Amino acid sequence: MAASDPATPDAKTRILDAAERLFMENGFAATSVRMITGAAGVPVALVNYHFGTKQGLMEAVYERALGSRGASRVTYLDKLEAEAAGQPIAVDVLVDAFLSSALRLTRKDSVTGEVFKQLIARAFYEPGPGTEAFFPAEYREAVDRYRQAFMLALPDLSQDDVVWRMYFFVGIVAYAMAGKDVMRMTETYSLADAGDPEAVLARLRPFIVAGFLAPAGSLQGLPRP
Prior knowledge:
The chain is mainly alpha-helical and 225 residues long. The chain is built from eleven helices and no strands. The protein has helices at residues 9-26, 33-40, 45-51, 54-66, 75-84, 91-104, 113-125, 129-153, 159-177, 180-183, 197-213. The longest helix is centred in the middle third of the chain and has 25 residues, at 129-153. Keywords: DNA-binding. It holds the Pfam family TetR_C_30.
């Protein structure tokens, strides 16, 4: 069977491999479909056949790096909630559960942790409709499950306060996991652990826990420009 046959799994894999490498090197906007198919050694029509559009291909690249959708991101939370039997789960335990899930993303067998970090970094460098549309859909269920768990654990906070803290939490974790290339944008001196996701998340943990446990904020008393 010819490698360019639409039914050939190898052709689809070569397209994904080429797109992954080129998206990391050049970014989404600067990478054309012809560049990808040239690197993969397949006709342009196969991108349309397998992925529909360039954005569909980009989403497939991210999905392959992130792994299967849904259940894997809340497996540990399922276990914690079963053990808690309806009672609140401690905030630090919830933070640990979320961070451990995030850390596993850098250790996938199908794609190296460095590839995953570079893809996340590209999403920060070059935000656009593709990544903005994909990441919320990919994580909506997991983030909503954690939101409900944090609301139960923090009864003195309003839903708005919990949602804002989840928003900050997810954003900070994604930023930290993007690695030292993103951190270099703001650092003024070398961070020895910037390339080690486990060390970064260990440093991040007490900051996040303290943020969730802080009392509700107020704009009153803040200096006005």
